[in-house]
Each structure stands twice: as structure tokens, then as C-alpha cells.
Amino acid sequence: MASNANNNKVVKYRKPINFNIGMLIFVVIAIYVVICVVLYMRSNPVVGYEVKVGSLSVNNVYNGVVIRDEQIITTQDAGYVNYYARESEKVACGDLVYTVDGSGKLTEMLQSDTLGENTLSDADLNEIKGDIVSFAKDFDTSNFSDVYSFKFSLQGTSLKLANLNVLNSIDAVQSGSLGYSVKLCNAPRSGYVVYHTDGYESLNANEVTEETFDQDEYEKTQLINNELVAPGDAVYKFVTSENWSVVIPVTAERATELQEAEYVQVRFLKTQDISWASTEIYTSGDDYFCILGFNNSVVNFCTERFVDIELITEEEEGLKIPNSAIAEKEFFLIPKDFMTGEAGNDGTYRFLRETYLEDGTLSVETIELTVYNETETDYYVSDSSLRIGDYLVQEDSGEKYAISKKATLIGVYNMNKGYADFRQIIILYQNDEYAIVKSNTEYGLNAYDYIVLDAASVTDDSLIYE
User: How many other CB atoms sit within 10 Å of the CB of residue 313?
Assistant: First the structure.
């Protein structure tokens, strides 16, 4: 029985350990990938930028205030005013501009057929159609007030055409029953007629301030046909000279450029006309303003107080680089007389530096320094082996120079050779995002060089892996 009990005892079989080399390799690779991803996420990757030739589009569009020689004409009589000259039309001295009807019966006569049938010729119709087409083409919904200006302008055109019969029969009006109540008012001199006032008529160009450009505060009073006027009321405005100006706000830098230019081409955005203007700069507090002077075409803008213009200037062209790539770096200044020879074609030169041997003996060693720029007398060099107080020795005379002077250069980091190599740049023009730099300079950049996009992401001679 004991023998049978021993035979029934079950002993657990232990399996041998199987070492799976494939699983181990997979785990190692997975850990390596995770480590690389973590390091990459925590690193600041260096991004390159290819330098290309380009130009900067400068914002040369301004909203300006128009300043003219303007004279407000007032009436000496009371009554209803009727206009016979179209707005913006040039009238000669003695031409009839308006009448003042003390009785109001002239208006009734104009609206009746007393003076005969009023018909518009083809030329008259074409004139009105031309005005409508021009307005529809240039209309901007953001300036709805232009609708009212156009309305009054069109009324002036229609009145001018409709009142031709009155002008032809003016003798009959004067000799008839209305002669005593209708006062004919002629132009005192030649000029352009405008049928509104705005309080800017006496403003001088050099009196314009920032507040002048606030169009929310701008108010224009329209002078309307057949309105009742009293003695001393304004009846129309006279623009008496072809000399006029547009005042625009500018930055200090642009003020200097325009002052030096003396003349500049101007494009009027509403009409797309181009004209030359003289430039004059003045200041009001900390603000700079430019007076653009014109001597023709005042008729095109004699009814406008604010105009949009574009200054046509030459665009700066060169190597276009982002501002984020620009950095500043300090360099030692070393007199050129202490250079002993050129070390190679990579911009390095040989110099002699005073040093001490292990036994304390004074000696001279040859060092190679990279030159990043030069003036008539000095080299700009940067080398970690140099310290302030080191002495350079002149090869022929033995004269010594203590390294002490430093200067700053503006540049970018070139990455053509796989490491961050500082290159000086000469900025021709710069805006908020890009700079135009001079190309083909001795220590600068060339087209199609690769530079570090973010200069803050590298240090001098940092290795760059693409």
C-alpha cells in the first residue's frame, strides 16, 4: 500500500526558461525610440532659411488733409438763393453764379413753363450719365456720406442745364415784374465754385495736427439751392488758386527720407492720377507731418477735404531675410599692422601673441584668428583663445598691443558648413517682419546661402544637424 501511495504522488514539471532574443531587441528599440522622441520634444530644433533676392513692399498709402486757397462768399441780401454754376466749375470774373429772389416767385417761374420748354440736349444727357457712371464706379459703402455729396452735385448739374432758359431770358426777368426782387450775383474773380463749407477754409498747412485727421468730428455744411438766406450767410465757396497741398502724418524715418528727396511722385487712389509734389516737413509736438505741394489739378479735388494717396518710391532690393535671423555679436578690434599673413581662404589671418612657457620664459606663438569685418585701421576678430589683456606682437618692430577694444556687429548665422558661422550684414531697409540686406559683401551673405531662422536657437560654432 505504501508503494502505491508513493507511485500516486504527482511532482510538478518545471519548464526550462526560453530566452527570446527577438523580444529583447524589440524592447531595446522601443526604449531607444521613446528616448529620442523625448529628447527631440525637449530640444530646440534649428530651422534653416534659404536667402533669396527680394524686395520689401513699403506701405506708402496715406490719408491726407487738403489745404487750398479758399474764400467764403456771403450774400448781402435776404431771399431764396438759386445757383447757375455747376459745383467744381471754373467761372470767370463777372460770370453769374447765383441769384437772390426776395419774393420767391422766381422759383415758381422756374418750375412753370413761363420761360418756355426745358429740354436736355444729347450733350447734356451725356454729362449727367458720365457723372452717374463715375460715382457708381468709385462708390464705397463705408463712405455713405458720398451719396449726399453726389446728390447735391447732380442737383447742381441739373440746375445748370435747366436754368439755361433763365439765363437766355435774364433781360426779360429784369425788365419784368420780378426785376425789383431778383438780385443777380456775379463772381468777383475767376475761380472754382464749391457749394459747401466745413470750417477748414482758413487752416494753414503747417497748422495741421493729429486731431485734424479725426473724420468723426468733421462736419460739412451743404449749401442747398432754393434755400432761404439772410444777409451775411454763406452762399458758396471760391477756390482761387491752382496751388494747393496735401498734409500727411509720417514717421520720423520717412520724414527724413522725404525731406532729402525734395520731390516725390504721388498717386491719387480715387482717380489713379499721378503727379509730382514738393515735400516739406514740419513737427507738431512729437508728431511729424509732410506737406505735399501741387501746382495743378486742383479742380479734381476742390470739393474734397480728405484724400487717399500713395507715395511712389523706389523699393529697396537686395537679400531678403527674416528679422528673427538677425543677431548682434561683440568682437575684438585688432590693428591691421599686427597681422603677419593670411592663413587660408576661410577668412583666417596669422597673428603673434606673447605667451609664457612652462618654465616661465617669455615667448611668442602664432595664432590664427577669423576676421568678420574690417575698417581702414582695424580687424573685427572673435576667438575663444583671446582674452582682454593679452599682448599681440608686431613681427617687424616687436611693438606690443594689449587687446582691450570691443565693438558690435549686426549679422546672421550661416549654416552652409554644418555649424553656426556668424556673418555680418548691412541692412538697407527693414519692416516689422523682414530686412533687405546688401548682397555680395566681403564678409556677408550671398544669394542661396542657408542661415539659421532663429538666431537665439544657436551659439557661436554650434554644430547643426539637418
Answer: 14
How many C-alpha atoms does 326 have within 13 Å on its Cβ side? 19
> d(Cα 90, Cα 193) in Å, to the nearest integer?
6
Gap between the Cα atoms of 455 and 411, Å rounded:
9
3-class secondary structure for 185-235? EECCCCEEEECEECCCCCCCHHHCCHHHHCCCCCCCEECCCCCEECCCCEE
Using one digit for the tens of pLDDT, what is the confidence trace for 303-330?
A: 889 999 988 876 667 899 999 999 999 9
Query: CB under 8 Å to 291, separation ≥6 — which residues?
Result: 205, 206, 245, 246, 247, 279, 280, 281, 282
Distance CA 41, CA 35 (A): 10
**pTM, full prediction:** 0.56
Q: What is the DSSP letter of 76?
A: S
The whole-angstrom separation of Cα 203 and Cα 286 is 20
Model confidence pLDDT, tens digit, residues 226-239: 788 899 999 999 99
The single-letter DSSP state of residue 323 is: G
Using CB atoms within 10 Å of the CB of residue 284, give its burial: 0 to 12 exposed, 13 to 18 middle, 19+ buried. middle
Tell me which residue has cell 452762399.
Answer: 235
CA count, 13 A, side-chain hemisphere, 322 = 12
Query: Would you call 335 exposed, middle or buried from its count of C-beta atoms within 10 A (0-12, 13-18, 19+)?
Result: middle
Q: Which three cell numbers stand for residue 420?
A: 553656426
**What is the helix, strand, coil percentage profile of the chain, to 5?**
25, 35, 40
Q: Rounded distance, CA 354 to CA 331, Å? A: 20
Query: 404 phi and psi, to 5 degrees?
Result: -150, -35
From the centroid of its chain, how far is CA 346?
A: 40
Alpha-carbon Rg for the chain, nearest whole angstrom, is 42
DSSP code string of 289-310: EEEEEESS-GGGGTT-SEEEEE
Cross-strand pairs, 434: 322
